[in-house]
C-alpha cells in the first residue's frame, strides 16, 4: 500500500511511477535505511570487539 494513497489529492492508480513527491519520499526512506544499517553495523562491530575482549580476558585463566 502506498502511503500517499489516502492523503494525496492527485492520486490515481499507478501515478507513483512518475510522481516527484514519491521519488523524494523514496530518497528520504533510502537515506534513513542507510543510516540505520550503518548504525547497526557499528553496534555489531562494537559487540564483536567486546565479546572478543571478554573471551581473551577469561580464556584459560582461573582467578582465585
The arrangement of helices and strands along the chain is: H
Unreliable residue stretches: none
> How many H/I helices?
1
Helix/strand/pairing class, anyone?
A: mainly alpha
Content of β-strand:
under 5%
Q: Averaged pLDDT, please?
A: 84
Tally the beta strands. 0
Name its key features.
64 residues, mainly alpha, 1 helix, 0% strand, rod-shaped
Detail the topology: elements first, then pairings.
Elements (H helix, E strand, L loop, with lengths): L19 H39 L6
What can you see in these coordinates?
With 64 residues, this protein is mainly alpha-helical. It contains one helix and no strands. The longest helix is centred in the middle third of the chain and has 39 residues. The radius of gyration is 23 Å and the shape is rod-shaped. The model has no long low-confidence stretch (mean pLDDT 84).
Amino acid at each position: 500500500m502506498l502511503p500517499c494513497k489516502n492523503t494525496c489529492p492527485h492520486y490515481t492508480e499507478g501515478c507513483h511511477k512518475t510522481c516527484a513527491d514519491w521519488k523524494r519520499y523514496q530518497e528520504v526512506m533510502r537515506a534513513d535505511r542507510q543510516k540505520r544499517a550503518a548504525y547497526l553495523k557499528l553496534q555489531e562491530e562494537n559487540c564483536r570487539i567486546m565479546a572478543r575482549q571478554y573471551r581473551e580476558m577469561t580464556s584459560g585463566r582461573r582467578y582465585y
